[in-house]
Design goal:
The complex is a heterodimer. By secondary structure, chain A is α+β, with helices and mostly antiparallel strands. Chain A is built from two helices and three strands. A three-stranded antiparallel sheet of chain A has the order 1-2-3. In chain A, 22% of the residues are buried. Chain B is an alpha+beta fold. In chain B, 53% of the residues lie in helices and 14% in strands. In chain B, a hairpin with an 8-residue loop joins strand 7 and strand 8. In chain B, helix 8 crosses helix 9. The two termini of chain B are 58 Å apart. Classes of the chains: A alpha+beta, B alpha+beta. At the A-B interface, helix 1 of A face helix 1, helix 2 and strand 10 of B.
Chain lengths: 96, 584
């Protein structure tokens, strides 16, 4: 193989690797943001529930809040890679 | 190396840097989230204790502390302090401080875990509504008979006179209605709905000199059908519902036209458990003694006369509404609710408490412990109504956010500190200039040396979370690198290389040995933390000291040249300055 051909293969491989890396980093960032949001909602909702107040609708927007006996679980859906993959960010708070 | 090879190395290096950045980003987020978790634990601990306090104002500080500790523990934190804030005996709020372990150290040698502290304050606002269908209930402490009837009658002071009145629906009492109500409340209901004449006929006549509390006095007995009746309460005073336009009140026995006296129940009443000063003040100022006694019992007033004057003035402003009058007199609906609760006993059904997180103001409640009592007038939480206002909610949110933000900034500082340390590692690996690489290694070794020294003085270091996993990963790598450097030192031809690789081998071996002093927790993957003892920190310190010395030795000529150049530059600058200042 010529030196140019070898360089082309290396370039393509590097581009593919860089693209995969970019997608991976984007997924990490999206998941990170969703986790932060779930934690924030859990923080607010847990205090409201503990105070005996209802959880306002804006906190429930795009997030599922479940209150069990002594725990509050917040689930935020996460769409990765433009919706090709889906997962959830979950945050929990132990209620009094 | 060829140009292509250099490009490949650079590409791999760039990818490595990006990966390292991503890892650091995630690590920073985790560190920053620790502050938020601590605040949540503090909030829930405070709300947990305050909720119990709302349901039971008499809950002991020990019981409340236990609840707060449990709530903090279940949210991953440890309760540091608990304060019950009271005014007199009226609970106002609980304030807690918690600590939550957060990873924030350097994987090589520094502290691996720190504790984020967070504080929270939850206020309790009580409210009470007297029953709409009956007159004022009074806590008779299980008592019955004439004295209980006196207490029940006195508690109605201030109700308007209503002819024929005997129920709340009628809005007040007439004279016989008050007596009928009082004896019914005391557990001795009279038959039917007796009029004054009926009571005269039912009572056993006695003389004025025989009067005891609970006995009745009549007007108009000469006709055989008296038209007015009152209840003797002792001390030469009656409690009566006098006439239209007046309120239930205390009146002196003498000069009231009382011409007949009777006793409904045989036997002398038991000794009264009343405070003479309270009774005297209540009778002098026409206020219900049970409310006045509760005020003093709860520490909301110290002088019965002063409190009675204030309550009387408030009752004039709120006729027929003791709850509102107490709130007005005390300036605090929450305290008024507790007074009503203490005064009314089980008859008060509309008692409740509301819990809200409060801002941690600079002048926040001081710690008063379990027994100490703060001076009266200490600021308490806002009343329920104020708490509900949007302005307060915004203020509270802003202050809590500010509080949380300060915690997060501390965590961010810890994270950036780690970022700087990782930056030195990256520089020691990727910087093209070999002298600068060695300088970065030297700086990193100095950093780790300081951290190891601090760990020694602090009695070791706890590894947890990512730090523990980093130690688990670097320990086998350290063993491998020690062997590799030792081999390179053995095969090196130049003396300087033998010293450099030998020092690196010794450094790596000592640092790894230091980490291994954490024991089996380092290799037991289920362990959540591992403790490196001071001797391990000392080994790490020795290792990084050897590495630093080797760096200095290897770069001695470059460093000396740099020092010489720096000295020359300083000398040149001095000469230039002297020339500039010398006019000749």
């Amino acid at each position: 193989m010529s030196e140019r051909g070898q360089a082309t293969i290396e370039l393509v491989a590097f581009a593919a690797l860089a693209a995969a890396l970019a997608v991976g980093i984007q997924a990490v960032l999206v998941a990170w943001a969703a986790q932060g949001r779930a934690q924030g909602i859990a923080d607010q909702a847990a205090v409201l529930v503990a105070e005996g107040r209802p959880v306002p609708a804006q906190l429930r927007h795009d997030a599922a809040i479940r209150v069990r006996a002594h725990a509050l679980v917040v689930t935020v859906p996460v769409r990765l890679a433009g919706g090709l993959a889906r997962t959830t960010a979950v945050a929990r708070a132990a209620l009094p | 190396m060829s140009e292509r090879g250099q490009i490949s190395v650079a590409a791999v290096g760039a990818i490595g840097v990006v990966l390292l950045g991503a890892v650091l980003l995630g690590y920073l987020s985790m560190v920053a989230a620790g502050g938020g978790h601590a605040q949540r634990a503090a909030d829930l601990a405070a709300v947990s204790a305050a909720t119990r306090l709302a349901a039971d104002p008499g809950a002991t500080p020990a019981a409340l502390r236990e609840l707060a500790a449990d709530a903090a523990h279940r949210n991953g934190a440890r309760l540091l302090s608990f304060t019950l804030v009271r005014t007199g005996s009226v609970p106002r709020a609980v304030e807690v401080a918690v600590a939550l372990p957060v990873d924030g150290g350097v994987p090589v040698a520094g502290r691996q875990s720190r504790h984020v502290e967070a504080r929270a304050r939850a206020g309790v606002a009580y409210s009470a509504t007297l029953p709409a269908g009956s007159f004022r209930p009074v806590d008779l402490h299980g008592g019955r008979g004439p004295l209980a009837a006196v207490a029940a009658a006195e508690a109605q002071v201030g109700w308007p006179y209503v002819w024929g009145g005997e129920s709340r629906a009628e809005g007040g009492f007439d004279c016989s209605g008050l007596v009928d109500y009082a004896y019914a409340a005391a557990g001795d209901p009279l038959p039917g709905r007796p009029t004054a004449a009926d009571l005269w006929h039912d009572a056993r006549p006695i003389s004025a000199g025989e009067l005891l509390p609970g006995d009745l006095a009549f007007v108009g007995t000469a006709s055989g059908a008296p038209h007015h009746v009152g209840m003797y309460v002792g001390g030469g005073l009656m409690v009566v519902a006098p006439h239209t336009g007046a309120e239930v009140r205390f009146e002196p026995l003498a000069g009231g036209g009382w011409d007949g006296f009777g006793r409904l129940f045989a036997g002398a009443p038991a000794a009264a458990e009343t405070d003479a000063a309270v009774e005297a003040a209540a009778r002098a100022h026409q206020v219900p003694p049970h409310a006045l006694a509760a005020e003093l019992r709860l520490g909301l007033a110290t002088d019965a006369d002063t409190a009675a004057v204030g309550l009387r003035a408030a009752m004039r402003r709120h006729p027929g509404d003791l709850a509102a009058a107490l709130g007005d007199a005390l300036g605090d609906p929450s305290a008024a609710a507790l007074v009503l609760r203490a005064a009314s006993g089980a008859g008060l059904h509309g008692f409740s408490g509301v819990v809200r997180l409060l801002p941690l103001a600079a002048a926040a409640a001081r710690a008063i412990g379990a027994t100490a009592t703060p001076p009266a007038g200490e600021d308490g939480p806002e009343s329920t109504g104020v708490l509900e206002t949007g302005a307060k909610a915004v203020e509270r949110g802003a202050e809590q956010g500010d509080h949380l933000g300060s915690r997060l900034s501390l965590q961010a500082a810890a994270g950036f500190k780690n970022l700087a340390r990782f930056g030195l590692t990256a520089a020691a690996t990727f910087v093209p200039n070999p002298h600068l690489r060695d300088l970065s290694t030297l700086a990193g070794a100095a950093w780790d040396g300081v951290e190891s020294g601090l760990a020694m003085t602090r009695g070791g270091v706890e590894l947890a979370g990512p730090s523990l996993w980093a130690a688990r990963l670097t320990t086998p790598l350290g063993i491998g690198f020690s062997a590799l450097f030792a081999y390179q030192a053995w095969t090196a031809r130049r003396r300087d290389d033998r010293i450099w690789y030998g020092a690196q081998a010794a450094s790596s071996a000592l640092t790894t040995a230091g980490a291994m002093t954490a024991g089996t927790d380092l290799v037991m993957l289920g362990a959540g933390s591992a403790e490196v003892p001071p001797v391990g920190a000392a080994l790490m310190l020795a290792g990084v000291t050897i590495l630093a010395a080797a760096c200095v030795y290897r770069e001695r000529h470059w460093l000396a040249g740099g020092a010489g150049r720096a000295a020359g530059a300083v000398a040149d600058a001095g000469r230039s300055l002297a020339d500039a200042l010398n006019p000749f």
